[in-house]
Amino acid sequence: MSRQKEDPVYNRVEALRNSRGLSRQQLADLVSVHYQTIGYLERGEYSPSLLLALKIAQALDTELALIFSITPFEGGA
Questions:
Q1: Which of 11, 29, 56, 71 has a 20 to 30 A CA-CA distance from 36?
Q2: What are phi and psi of 33, to 5 degrees?
């Protein structure tokens, strides 16, 4: 039995984090994850749990739908 590939979750975490002057470590500390998790997320190598996505939205003071999407964002970010 083969495992189906997951559909990608597109995100704007890096752009929003940078616009707020936060490092990966600072955002990671705010949402209680390792800084590498933020890197994996930003590169699209990891899809967040709902809880983590909500924590990131809260930390970035941005609506969830403006950060995460199942369709690519216009402009590539």
A1: 71
A2: -130, 170
Residue 60 lies in a domain: yes
Instruction: Decide if 4 is inside a domain.
Output: no
pLDDT by residue for the chain (77 residues), tens only, comes to 555 677 889 999 999 999 999 999 999 999 999 999 999 999 999 999 999 999 999 999 999 999 999 999 987 65
The tally of domains found in the chain comes to 1
In DSSP terms, which residues pair with 68 in a beta bridge?
A: 11
**Structural domain contains residue 3:** no
CB count in 10 Å sphere of residue 68? 21
Confidence (pTM): 0.88
Alpha helices in the chain (DSSP H): 13-19, 24-31, 35-42, 50-59
